[in-house]
Design goal:
By secondary structure, the protein is of the alpha+beta class. 18% of the residues lie in helices and 36% in strands. The protein folds into two domains: 61-319, no CATH class; 327-469, no CATH class. The strands form seven sheets. It has a six-stranded antiparallel β-barrel. A five-stranded antiparallel sheet has the order 19-20-15-23-24, with no helix packed on it. A hairpin with a 2-residue loop joins β12 (275-285) and β13 (288-295). α2 (106-112) crosses α4 (146-172) and α3 packs antiparallel against α4. The relative contact order is 0.15.
């Protein structure tokens, strides 16, 4: 019989208890914090910023202007070949020889035949190269009329070379009386500057200007000088008798209304970049609007131009460039300047004594320094943000005697008056702060705001680019 065995009943192990230590708690807090920060980041609207820059812009009118001069075209009363003694752009006096008519053509044939070579100097080559270079540098597809000016300039240079060569040969043959007697020399009847181009508008004056005068602005000047035989009555030169001339612009009604009260206008000549300020005269005629600018110099510079591309500067504005998307309108509370106080040296800026109530219901005053958004010097008012004060808040006139709180004394001002202002949200301090701007000039995309205003924006300030994404007093980080 088997022996008795003793069996011990095993007890089931008690359930395990997990202890939460301090490290676990800290890890959980950090985890929750990062989850919260991540949630805030993905839900927080993205804010684009803009750095304020200084800029100068010009309000201009770009158009073609019509030149009016004291000028006329001189024609020959004899047929024949013309030999010129005066260069283009040269000034002549009364009875100065301008040209000679070779009635028979014998002299001209002798000095300009096939056996007579024309010598071209280095200066001649340089002049021609400069004409080509100037045309290439100023070429624009839209200014196709400049092609005619280029052609005239080249023709004029070539005719100068040909004519100089002819004159030299005539001087060498001048000892032959039979040769020189066949030339009929013609002198100038007036003093002025000689030009060898014309366009048929030489008789135009300020009284005869109409809107039709601007309908053929691509008409080119015609070259007068030629190696062919001239007929009697043909133009031989144009003479400009005075340095005084006028530039006339046709304006739209809107342009006219904008500048009609200006006494002087600044004009930029787009042909060569010259800028000049001149007295302006405005006039209307048959429903059209014009302005005339008087000049007493530069005539020779533009003597072969009837129509000139110009830019009239109406106004130049310097200031700070602000995108229109940054501009927001806010209401601000007005506070009389007399209620400001500088009693608390620990608080910078303009301060006020605001009436507050403590836990026991006692009224005292506390020094506050709200955001000053705008200063109205004329009416002696500070305009402050609605974030810092509310309607019904009361300010005491007398400055506080204590740095923290004082008993109330003096006149009381209750905040109620408010006005709307345009401004931007400044973010230099990490939160949005409304700043009033004074717009000097506006376009569809941006405005030019006044610089160096009290409590205003400055160059290199950072502002919110799109005000719809945020409000005032909000943190941007």
């Amino acid at each position: 019989m088997a022996g008795n065995r003793n069996y011990k009943r095993r007890r089931k192990p008690a359930g395990k208890h997990y202890r939460i230590n301090l490290a676990t708690i800290i890890a959980m807090v950090i985890f929750v914090y990062f989850i919260a920060r991540f949630a805030m980041t993905i839900t927080k609207p993205k804010i684009s910023t803009y750095e304020v820059t200084a800029q100068k812009i010009y309000d201009t009118i770009t158009t073609k202007a019509l030149a009016i001069r004291d000028e006329h075209v001189v024609s020959t009363d004899q047929a024949g070949y013309i030999i010129y003694y005066v260069a283009d752009g040269e000034r002549v006096g009364v009875n100065s020889g301008v040209y000679a008519v070779d009635l028979s053509g014998s002299v001209y044939s002798q000095v300009s035949g096939k056996d007579n070579d024309i010598s071209i100097s280095d200066d001649d080559y340089i002049n021609i190269k400069n004409v080509i270079k100037d045309y290439k540098n100023s070429y624009k597809d839209s200014a196709y009329g400049s092609v005619y000016d280029f052609k005239y300039s080249l023709d004029n240079n070539i005719m100068e070379i040909v004519n100089d060569s002819v004159i030299k040969k005539i001087n060498n043959l001048s000892s032959d009386d039979s040769f020189t007697n066949s030339l009929n020399k013609v002198v100038a009847n007036d003093t002025g500057v000689i030009s060898y181009c014309y366009d048929g508008m030489e008789g135009l004056n300020i009284d005869s200007i109409t809107s039709d005068s601007f309908k053929h602005m691509d008409t080119a000047m015609k070259q007068i000088r030629s190696t062919d035989q001239y007929k009697a009555g043909s133009p031989v030169y144009r003479i400009i008798n005075s340095e005084n001339w006028q530039l006339v612009l046709e304006l739209s009604k809107d342009q006219y209304e904008r500048i009609k009260n200006e006494k002087f206008l600044t004009v930029n000549f787009l042909k060569d970049g010259l800028t000049a300020e001149r007295a302006a005269s405005f006039f209307e005629k048959n429903g059209s609007y014009f302005v005339s600018l008087d000049f007493n110099k530069y005539m020779e510079r533009y003597m072969d131009d009837r129509y000139l591309d110009v830019e009239v500067v109406i106004n130049s504005v310097s200031g700070l460039k602000v995108p229109n998307s940054s501009i927001v309108e806010e209401e601000l509370y007005a506070i009389p300047m007399e209620y400001s106080t500088m009693a608390d040296e620990a608080i910078s800026g303009v301060t006020f004594s605001k009436i507050t109530t403590d836990d026991k219901g006692k009224e005292t005053t506390t020094v506050i320094a709200p955001n000053i958004c705008y200063v109205d010097e004329k009416n002696k008012l500070y305009y402050v943000s609605k974030v810092d004060l509310s309607a019904g808040d009361q300010l005491v006139l007398a400055p506080p005697e204590d740095k923290e709180e004082t008993a109330i004394s003096g006149e009381i001002y209750t905040i109620s008056k408010k006005d709307k202002f345009k401004g931007v949200y400044l973010i230099n301090r990490g939160f949005t702060q409304f700043i009033v701007i004074n717009s000097l000039y506006e376009t569809d995309d941006f405005c030019i705001a006044e610089d160096k205003t009290l409590y205003g924006i400055s160059e290199y300030d950072h502002i919110v680019l799109n005000h719809n994404s945020i409000g005032e007093g909000q943190s941007i980080y």
